[in-house]
Write a structure and sequence with these properties.
With about 250 residues, the protein is α/β, with parallel strands linked by helices. It has two domains: about 170 residues, 3-Layer(aba) Sandwich (Rossmann fold), CATH 3.40.50; about 55 residues, no CATH class. It is built from eleven helices and seven strands. The protein has a seven-stranded mixed sheet with strand order 1-3-2-4-5-6-7, sandwiched between helices. α2 crosses α3, α4 runs antiparallel to α5 and α5 packs across α7. The longest helix is centred in the middle third of the chain and has 14 residues.
């Protein structure tokens, strides 16, 4: 584990641990950090380590940010949702519940998180045109061309500079293969979130998780895509707050 993780904290109340996805950092949660969620929760957003690391190592890093005895609502976006799921599996003592935004896992035990052909194409693009070109291909594949075009130019450029982190996350995701039957051991309540405009391949995984997790509910956010916490931030805040209240973490 790195000696320090850059973390930003805001607000008062029970902890809400915010875990970013690939090609991002803690600033993907900037809207949440400045929102009324601060009146109900202590928001903790951090930069995941940039070097190669397993899903389990990222999960251990995240848990290290909590104080003794703290139990957080663990919120993850995309690859961050896979990390959040691992925290729910291996660190139940650190959790009060989880919110998983479109984790990019295979929908069955046998299905890979990503077809090998995608990874081959990303690596070929990186070798021929450089890391930023490969990162752009990744972002367009995950978000869609329209959502990518709507991203602020500065965010596009910052994300395109993160090819090494994207590739490391991809490698970690491929090797992380918990069996769906094992998820029956997750005792905490889980809110699964999807975007109405997201790529279609996220929905089968959400449905599989809904069936496998003992206490899960699914909500599809209208008009939003994969980055729904930013695209539909008010709706995101409402559904997360309502979920937290339903499990005794916040006022409704």
């Amino acid at each position: 584990m790195p000696s320090t993780l850059h973390a930003v904290r805001a607000g008062v109340g029970p902890p809400m641990l915010l875990i970013h996805g690939s090609a991002a950092d803690h600033t993907t949660w900037s809207i949440q950090l400045a929102s009324a969620l601060r009146e109900r929760f202590t928001l903790i957003a951090f930069d995941r380590r940039a070097c190669e690391a397993t899903v389990e190592a990222h999960a251990d890093d995240a848990v290290s940010l909590l104080g003794p005895g703290e139990r957080a609502l663990v919120v993850g976006s995309s690859f961050g949702a896979v990390i959040a799921l691992d925290i729910l599996r291996r660190h139940p003592e650190a959790c009060a519940g989880g919110v998983l935004i479109e984790p990019p896992m295979g929908p069955t035990d046998e299905a890979p998180a990503a077809p090998q052909a995608f990874l081959v194409e990303y690596d070929r693009r990186a070798a021929e045109q450089g890391g930023p070109a490969a990162a752009e291909l990744f972002l367009r594949t995950v978000l869609g061309d329209t959502a990518y075009a709507r991203m602020p130019r500065a965010y596009q450029e910052r994300s395109k500079a993160k090819w090494a982190e994207i590739r490391a996350d991809s490698a970690a995701l491929i090797t992380y293969r918990p069996r769906y039957a094992e998820l029956a051991t997750v005792s905490h309540p889980v809110l699964l979130l999807g975007g109405e405009r997201s790529a279609g391949y996220f929905r089968p995984t959400l449905d599989a998780l809904l069936a496998a997790l003992p206490d899960a509910r699914l909500e599809i956010v209208p008009g939003a895509g994969h980055m729904l916490h930013a695209e539909a931030h008010r709706r995101f805040a409402d559904v997360v707050t309502a979920f937290a209240a339903s499990i005794g973490l916040a006022r409704p």
